[in-house]
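User: Predict structure, ligand guanosine-5'-triphosphate.
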Amino acid sequence: MDIKKIRNFSIIAHIDHGKSTLADRILEITGLVGEREKKDQYLDKMDLERERGITIKAQTVRIPYKSKDGTTYILNLIDTPGHVDFSYEVSRSLAACDGALLVVDATQGVEAQTLANVYLALDHDLEILPVLNKIDLPSAEPERVIEEIEEGIGLDTSNITLVSAKTGEGVPELLEKIIKFIPSPKGDPNAPLKALIFDSWYDPYVGVVVLFRVIDGTIVKGQDILMCSTGKKYEVIRLGVFSPEAVDINQLGPGEVGFLCANIKELKDARVGDTITHPKKPTPKPFPGFKKIKPMVFCGLYPVDPGEYEDLKFALEKLQLNDSSLFFEAETSQALGFGFRCGFLGLLHMEIVQERLEREFKVNLIATAPSVVYQVVKVDGTILEVDNPSKLPPPVEIEAIKEPFVKMEIHVPNEYVGNVLKLCEEKRGIQKDIRYLTTSRVIVIYELPFAEIVYDFFDRLKSVSRGFASLDYEVIDFRPSNLVKLDILINGSPVDAMATIVHRDKAYYKGRALALRLKKVIPRQLFEVVIQAAIGNKIIARERIAPLRKNVTAKCYGGDITRKRKLLEKQKEGKKRMKQMGNVEVPQEAFLAVLKAE
Ligand code: GTP
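Assistant: Predicted complex:
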């Protein structure tokens, strides 16, 4: 393969700006996916992604493309995830590219993640090709958005392409520009093998599948390889490319992108960022490896039926095979029994994992309210990382509690700036900067406690800006705050799974709101239920649920047996998600209520 005819690139964009649609159109226009097998959003592999409209797992496609000059090129399109939680995954796929298409929605303009993605691409020294998408829409404002790209980002737009990923307009021109402006890879075919792993996942039939880009040398089917970080050796059993289905190939040279299978049993043996080399002639310069990402949001996951504990463990192990950013360890809760403490990159990541556990592995779950990681400075000088409020040491042992802060960048139209500032202030934010991207769009920069975002920040931001604000954030440091543990007691017993850490100024308000909410979601029982919120020994709120015998079929006078059965089934369904707390049955909603209490 002539290295000069290879182009390795990604598409980067703010969420919903049309990255997947553009990828589909490229596959179609280059003839890789014909009309018949054309499925919308081919690159969004999983059903779940399709439903949510976001990409979780990066997938690479090799596209032969015959250019107008008559030469056939190989385009390696590397699909990247688009959500704020997954910026690490974007970063690792970009490492395998030489260029990136920066897609900006012509009806929207530059958003927070447009900018964040540009920074990532610049970090990797990529050639950035700006693309203005959705020009078929009457509301498209190309001039305004081009100005935003020029002035807001400082990107040269002289080679910008105007496209409609939907109709395909402009896409042929874009393909020509990819050839012209994105540099071909560099690499030495005679140097020792050096390949970068930029993605890997577990496949039940073949074990770990590794996606890599060859930097130097050649990789050949049947050869032995060495993983630099683990020192483990493997034989390459399968070598190939996705085009878009898996196609077997005998060898891949510098600049090429492909996959391999080598009987690798565990994902940790094929870490993203690791270097593949030849055991007898190793590369002298392996990659330094990628930073290890730390989960920032934690919650407890418990099987509703204790008999499903092993199933849940199996499912988490399986998911982890494909998601190295997912963390879990066994945990026991007085209230919920045996389960797992799980760590996630962010809230969306958490939601996706929960949904997959339930949908793909059919495990019924109870999830506790998410928590961030706190640093507890103890009186004896030691520092403890606490990711579970119920594990907070007693107040007498605590010198200070530090909480993670994020730097948040919010892009918002002029008219909603006031609302956004109000929201950030309410969330204990510290204003850092406000500047104009253009005359009508503003960038607001705040530092906020991460815990305040974990609750309902995204939803609130959406509603106060009518959906026009976009955000990006990163955790910057830990700062001391006046924090206390808020306990929930049901009939006198503290429910460990409902404990939260809150700012002292908000504790009373939150305790009351919480008790009220729980009252609404915990069904009446045969006896009185008392819900209390407490800080230490001090009760700050109390609610009471009067006893009642619940007879769900009471409404069905007469003999409609099917309706009766339906109601009973429904009740059974509801029961499934209950947990016995002492003698009180508490539904899943109660745990969500802890999350939503405002
Ligand atoms: P994520 O994968 O969630 O990051 O989104 P994305 O950037 O891949 O966006 P996607 O391709 O899913 O497009 C978002 C929405 O915009 C979809 O409803 C598309 O049908 C629509 N869309 C994308 N491109 C165009 C276009 O050129 N014109 C019009 N009218 N709609 C488009």
